[in-house]
Design goal:
alpha/beta, Rossmann fold, 10 strands, 42% helix
């Protein structure tokens, strides 16, 4: 492994921002960053060759997350965004200790706003198995869900559907309905999207849940926090022309096809080299 990056103050404002996820789901965060920071250069790493993370061991997830941060720092990134709730829940403390001089912004389930707005007093968190059982989610519930029941629902298979571009249709609706049913039966009126892949299923989730159920996506909050951190460190690019580059550790043709559906325009996807190949 390479040494941690130099302090942010030594990093040029024109350097790229690195964003990573277990696969293509983090594009839901990337699009919010692009909307809020149109002048920034964005580098996106999709670890689809190792996805999904939701059923992997915590040690495996931590090792992959560290390798991806290393890859982004090798590209000269000035900040890193963890666009993966599973990594946040299991490894964010380790990453910040491992790279203390790098601004790392991480997504986490929107438990606090959900607890504040629920009317029934029941909130559902839709997530991977690892996020459901993570210390990060437990901390959020303990800190912010006073007097509110939080039902954490693992949704196996949803990540894989998004990775295949299966965003709608009878089979996808049936898969969504299967995991929403226990939450709706217990009168959850607020659902938190606890995986960055799930915003791409949001139209189906909202259709199945019905108009009386709110669906919260924390992606925009991540973009706002990133902008705040860049401003505080004087790293925001004031006069750039925004661009994006994409890498994947999975099949490049499939990655380009699916990213082309999820991103506003066609993308060129490059091979993400493993650390041993660098």
């Amino acid at each position: 492994m390479t040494a941690p990056a130099a302090p942010a103050s030594a990093t040029p404002a024109g350097a790229p921002i690195g964003v990573f996820d277990s696969g293509v789901g983090g594009l839901s965060v990337l699009r919010e960053i692009r909307a809020l920071l149109p002048g920034e250069t964005l580098h996106y790493l999709a670890d689809s060759g190792h996805a999904p993370y939701g059923d992997k061991t915590p040690a495996y997830v931590q090792a992959r997350a560290e390798a991806l941060v290393q890859a982004l720092l090798a590209q000269g990134c000035k900040a890193v965004v963890v666009a993966c709730n599973t990594v946040t829940g299991l490894s964010i403390r380790h990453l910040r200790e491992r790279f203390p001089n790098v601004p790392i912004v991480a997504i986490e389930p929107a438990v606090k706003p959900a607890a504040a707005q629920t009317r029934s007093g029941v909130v559902g968190v839709l997530a991977t198995r690892n996020t459901v059982h993570s210390p990060g989610l437990a901390r959020l519930v303990a800190e912010h869900a006073h007097g509110v029941r939080v039902l954490a629902q693992a949704c196996p298979g949803w990540v894989e559907r998004v990775e295949r571009g299966e965003l709608d249709g009878p089979d996808t609706e049936a898969a969504v309905a299967e995991h929403l049913a226990p939450l709706l039966a217990q009168h959850a009126d607020t659902l938190v999207l606890g995986c960055t892949h799930y915003p791409f299923l949001r139209p189906v989730i909202e259709r199945v849940a019905g108009p009386g159920v709110a669906v919260l996506d924390p992606s925009a909050a991540v973009a706002r926090e990133l902008a705040r951190r860049l401003e505080a460190l004087r790293l925001r690019n004031p006069a750039g022309s925004g661009s994006e580059r994409f890498w994947s550790s999975g099949d490049l043709a499939r990655a380009a096809q699916v990213m082309g559906v999820l991103w506003p325009q066609p993308v060129a996807v490059e091979r993400l080299a493993e650390p041993t190949e660098a």
